[in-house]
Design goal:
The protein is α/β, with parallel strands linked by helices. The protein has seven helices and nine strands. Helix 1 (13-23) packs across helix 7 and helix 5 (105-133) packs parallel to helix 6 (154-174). The longest helix is centred in the middle third of the chain and has 29 residues, at 105-133. The radius of gyration is 16 Å and the shape is globular. The model has no long low-confidence stretch (mean pLDDT 90).
């Protein structure tokens, strides 16, 4: 079975996606910029019996990202599922504090680079093989502000809205080609996220990850909003 490639894999949703898909027989390609994070996630998945390997790349380095995905495809014999999720550039607190009056070209550009351009780069690296095989799944994650405008996370939400638009239209363009594309907007805190407000409602990452498995297998509507 081909692998799932988790781009910008992290210790919460990324780990859970590796666990859920790995539990269904998928190998897991972990792509992140931190070798320490890659090593930690690989070890945790291996302890659960999931075959995983890491490939280092920053999502804003397009050549490195494409090379990492090509290496992962070579290592596992193909990429059957791509998941792309970049929280945006900067810390959670910095992103949260960016309101509509704070947006500038300079602070929006890195969000577009990270959230949109990285997703396009990753997709173009795996899509030709999926089209040739007549099967594949492309899954994209953004924050809830990509769908429901909020007075915080504005710059990241703007970039996420662009990703959402592309993912939905991509779904339509690929509908008769055997490749499914879906966008998930997470409008709640994932349990364990640093910087989450005290007492904020949250969802467990494993519960969220199961939705992605349902999208992969059921190929339902292209858009989903997870709210508190």
């Amino acid at each position: 079975m081909p692998a799932i490639a988790l781009v910008a894999a992290g210790p919460r949703l990324g780990l859970s996606l590796g666990r859920i898909f790995g539990g269904h027989g998928f190998d897991v390609a972990l792509i992140a910029r931190s070798p320490e994070r890659i090593g930690e996630l690989t070890e945790k998945l291996a302890a659960e019996g999931v075959t995983a390997a890491g490939f280092r790349a920053d999502v804003t380095d397009r050549a490195a990202l494409a090379a990492a995905l090509n290496s992962a495809a070579g290592r596992f014999g193909g990429i059957g599922v791509l998941h792309y999720s970049s929280p945006g550039a900067g810390t959670t607190e910095t992103l949260r504090s960016t309101g509509p009056l704070d947006v500038t070209v300079d602070n929006l550009r890195p969000q577009v680079e990270s959230i949109c351009y990285g997703a396009i780069t990753a997709t173009r690296a795996v899509l030709p093989a999926m089209l040739a095989a007549g099967t594949g799944t492309l899954l994209y994650t953004s924050g809830g502000s990509a769908v429901t405008p909020a007075p915080v996370f504005v710059s990241a939400g703007m970039a996420g809205a662009a990703l959402r638009k592309w993912a939905i239209t991509l779904n339509r363009a690929l509908a008769d080609k055997g490749v499914y594309a879906g966008h998930v907007a997470i409008g709640t805190w994932i349990a364990g996220t640093p910087g989450a407000p005290e007492g904020a409602q949250h969802k467990e990452p494993d519960d969220i990850a199961r939705l992605y498995w349902e999208l992969h297998t059921g190929r339902g509507p292209a858009e989903h909003l997870i709210s508190a």
